[in-house]
Amino acid sequence: MDLNKIKDPSFLMEMNIDELNELAYKIRQFIIQSVSKTGGHLSSNLGIVELTIALHYVFNSPKDKIFFDVGHQSYVHKILTGRAKQFPTLRQFNGLSGFQKRCESKHDVWEAGHSSTALSAAVAMAIARDLNHEYFDVIPVIGDGAVVGGESLEALNHLGSIQNKVILILNDNQMSISKSTGAMNNFLNNIRISNTYNRMKDDYRTMLQKGKLGEGVYKATKYLKDFVKHGFLDDTIFEDFGMDYLGPIDGHNIGELIRVLNIAKTNKKSVVVHVVTEKGKGYSYAENDKEGKWHGTPPFNVKTGNVLTSTNKKSWSSIVSDQVFQWMKIDKDVTAITPAMMKGSAMDNLFKVFPERCFDVGIAEEHAMTFAAGLSISKKKPFISVYSSFIQRAYDQINHDIARMKLPCLCSIDRAGIVGEDGPTHHGVFDIGFLTPIPNIVYFAPKDAKELRTYVNTCFTNFNKPYFLRIPRGSIDDHPVDYHNTLKIGTWTIECREENYELTIICYGENVMRVKNMIEENHLPIRLINARFIKPIDYNMVHTIFKNDEKPIIVYETVLKTGSLGSILLTYCNENRILRSFEHIAIQDHFSKQGKVNEILEDEHVDIKSLLLKCEELLNGKKEN
Ligand SMILES: Cc1ncc(C[n+]2csc(CCOP(=O)(O)OP(=O)(O)O)c2C)c(N)n1
Ligand SMILES: CC(=O)[C@@H](O)[C@H](O)COP(=O)(O)O
Ligand SMILES: [Mg+2]
Description:
The protein folds into three domains: 3-285, 3-Layer(aba) Sandwich (Rossmann fold); 316-476, Rossmann fold, CATH 3.40.50.970; 493-624, Rossmann fold (3-Layer(aba) Sandwich), CATH 3.40.50.920. Helix content is 39%, strand content 15%. The strands form four sheets. It has a seven-stranded mixed sheet, with helices on both faces. It has a five-stranded parallel sheet with strand order 1-2-3-5-4, sandwiched between helices. Strands 14-16-15-18-19 form a five-stranded mixed sheet. Helix 11 (254-266) links the parallel strand 4 (244-250) and strand 5 (271-276). The structure holds thiamine diphosphate, 1-deoxy-D-xylulose-5-phosphate and magnesium ion (MG). Residues 143-145, 173, 175-176 line the site of magnesium ion.
């Protein structure tokens, strides 16, 4: 069958199990080929092919609400709901989203990108349905990584106390991006490997084969309830939360999936269907290397498994991590924390060499921050690395637990700025606006590897306050720095041209080097200020620039304008009665699109070309005067 011709999932009803298996094979090949060209979340999608087919076979979307937590594993759902043709545009500018998107299809009933929201939404949908006296099923599909996120557990707590039915599909592939961690994972693992379970599973299989479960849903459900009550599953956490439990089910056996999903469909109460799948299934490289590489991949060669873009530069994340590593070697109090992003934050080596001082707390940004506060109050020196967009979750913990008590820590805000293909849910453009109002913190955005390493040294040398660090996605040239080298908190530097300038640009982070190149390539009479401390700002320099100089000023940022450095400077000028206006280039009050970083910057008019145009306009205007 031609996947491009699929309009909606109704065609599945005409297919027998062999045909459904053939379809699964085709979809897998399609996804491998397609993602090899565009890049994307490969292994989670390869693992969920049969499960998604079975869900759309048993339930009637969009009347029944099938939706995926995070949404990075919704490619099969997209194909079955008529979007195969758009896959060449996956994650591209103005193309198909890598997550569910309500504007793309009526079958996308929820949107995410961040983890652990699906069950909350499902509980609400089920309650609203029952209030409206409507009849449909609500079926959130949640991974073993996402199910431990605080919000999932809060929603589970709510669901367990109400009568409204939700069918929670727990897609257990034993992996988050790295290996799943924590007690819930141990619990799921125990179910999977228990001898008792295996015996029970065989009994259950036999019953399925003999068609006994087909004799009547009531009988089947009762059997499963007895199974739950008297068998090895008598204290599943889900039962304790007031739900029924079905499973574990082989997530690559379509026949078994369909049978059990039908039982879940007719079950009266909320039910967890525990489905065991294999991440990366059907692509040998992804099956053999489950540790992160194939979770989200750039374009690659299908035959060799090699990615098509490679660089000699080092990621910003790995440079932070390496400098922290140097400090872990000499200071046994330094500890490291990641909320499930060990690979992305390049912390593998820390975990390998110092396992007893490194903590992957799972998808739990709130806990990660308060846990860091607890370590800090106990005289440890916590380093935490969290993506900018994910730390939005932990605002209160930074404010209430860390900053208010002035607890020393070093928190690296990774993936700050426009991140690219992950799109609006993942752009790190809000952190300056929401972190800088918090008292007691220091916030630093390095221009290069040297400044970055020097700041890490500064923090560990004087570990006495909440230090924050802001780094983007991407790579740069590395520059080793001895750990004695430090810098002065709250100081900005003049990056180029102290005299004979006609215009001043103020920027920070990776933009400093970009702007410097622009100035040098175009031989422009511009003074460039490296505003590396976003908090505290360099009041002396700011005063000098804004008070004593009549030449034009541009504050250039690639974050949201609201709450940005520009708005901090406006407030400063106002407070100090400095009557001075300046040009402010930053992102307007909306969510930026997905695509290549340069395309998005251009779309937002905050690219270097837009800056250059503004400079030329101001410089020419100056000359004409
Ligand atoms: C709040 C938040 N933190 C971290 C992430 C990054 N992230 C995306 S998918 C993922 C792993 C999810 O694991 P699981 O739910 O088991 O899905 P799988 O990929 O195994 O199918 C993580 C950590 C995120 N999207 N949102
Ligand atoms: C879906 C999700 O949230 C992550 O997989 C994210 O896409 C990772 O981003 P990086 O590729 O920047 O690590
Ligand atoms: Mg998983």
